[in-house]
């Protein structure tokens, strides 16, 4: 299983790009918990901490596709590094200024979220210029999804360690300092410096003019809703079955399931049309949410939560393949950033929607939301199957950095290649 991943990591620059991107994204992955802990340490209320975290999230959702478009237009170093520095500076202002002046605190976290560099989309744009062939790129997408699960597990632990050893303020400094170092490692690498987006047609919609991409965004909005709803529905369940420790195990189990599923999915090459495969994966994702309604004891529920997460990373990895194929020429970074943004917005909607549902019907109704949302996502994909299907001959193979070491471009693989 690990052979395919090791082969990718042995490729020149691959390990540096993956590690640099993950470290560079630590501030974003840990922002919510870091903000909440800092506000509480300052004596602020839960309402204030939640509002500040929400402002960061909204600003981040707005900034990702905008910065992604700028990367496509001007290259990675000229956008990613200034954005990382701007985000870190804004979070430093928040850490130093505290919550004594609410307007300043809100402005600082908004700026930090807005200027978060689109390293995730940037990495996926770089993979085709670093790896050999479509098969390796697809494996890299799966490895990327697995690595994210590791980051979202390790990141919060790193925050709590920093807070325990030093302070919540120090945690903000450390995490954002690491974020700048990670971004610096990526943008100084030869692939990032050499990468250029393919020439693009001037259009105000950018990547959003692709019908296939719009379908994927609509489907993954509901996948995000499903994931966000579980984080809320698990709270009243945990309150009745052991408290915070059980809640922590449930969230870890969800990530463990996604990590295992992504590792298995990426360990082999998959034949057939990726749009059809995505429909199968999303359908399985929705079906695996259903057993959560059984709500057994804590041990059984943890196992069911592992199962609920198994098909998440494979579905995301398959979506990456389709996003790359449907992104209009010259918009690949922006397109990947839109998928990240839509998934994040969906998760936020899911948490907001499930709160009233849980208050009305308890944990049982809350756990019904992910299955419904997953089912809607599947219906979107089924109703638009022809739109998502890769058009015959609709993509061409562009020159890669292997042929010209001084220039990495945005490849497009032929629809006849193995997916």
Architecture per CATH nomenclature, i.e. the level-2 architecture of the largest domain = Up-down Bundle
Helices, by number, come to 18
Could you report the average pLDDT, rounded to the nearest whole number?
Answer: 83
Number of spatially distinct domains: 2
Please provide the ordered H/E string of secondary-structure elements.
HHHHHHHHHHHHHHHHHH
Instruction: Please provide the count of β strands.
Output: 0
Would you tell me which CATH topology of the largest domain applies? Growth Hormone, Chain: A
Helix content estimate: over 70%
Instruction: Provide the β-strand percentage band.
Output: under 5%
**Biggest beta sheet attributes:** none
CATH homologous superfamily assignment of the largest domain: MFS general substrate transporter like domains
Shape: globular
- Low-confidence stretches are 392-419
Assign the CATH class of the largest domain.
Mainly Alpha
Category by helix and strand content: mainly alpha
Distance between the termini: 18 Å
Radius of gyration computed on alpha carbons: 21 Å
